Amino acid sequence: MKRTWKMIEESIRTENYLDECGKFLLFKNELQLIKSLTKVQSKQLIDIVEYLYNRRIIHRDLRPDNLMVVTKCSHLKLIDFGFATSFNTNETTKELSIGGTIIFADTKFLKHYLDTYSEFQLKPLVYNYPRTFDLQCALNIIMFMAHSRIKIEMNLIQQLQTKTKAEESLKLWTRIKEVNTNYSELLKSINDKKQTLNFSTIKEEIKKLFLKNIQ
Known about the structure:
Blueprint: H1 2-11, E1 16-18, E2 25-27, E3 31-33, H2 39-54, E4 57-58, E5 67-70, E6 76-78, E7 85-86, E8 93-97, H3 107-116, E9 126-130, H4 133-146, H5 148-157, H6 162-179, H7 181-191, H8 199-205
Antiparallel strand pairs: 1-2, 3-5, 4-7, 5-6, 8-9
């Protein structure tokens, strides 16, 4: 496990060291939370996801609060690997107790969550996380940061109770998929099991997510 977190440390390319007692990265550089996301930083976010994907790691808690920038150069950093896990060589999905982000997850996850959720749940909810889970969350974060209307809706959703939060998130991302062709096409390419995932194409296409055509 220590070796795994060492790889994560290298993935974010900053002067830091790994806390020997747990999954924490302590940064020497001054960091601040992101308030907006530029096209360049959006590509940096996909770079981070690609690095983890190539090393068979998913973060599972991709959300704006876990994205920071180095004050001096505005370079994007991903923090808080508390829910992260690694895949074995032949694994394409991994069954895990649900943890980390919910509202920035894809619609398949949200449907599963709502189908299995119960207020009187005795056992933890589980989900077969695909290796592309972080990538779909990253697209939703980019949409959230690029469109003020989505940001307003999501900020309201975050104040709701857990089940209602998932229900409203599902409605929102389903609607966006229906009205935003660029977003829906990117999701199709990510979920197309017949094609090899092409991060270079995704990084080129995400600039279209900044077009103001959300209804």
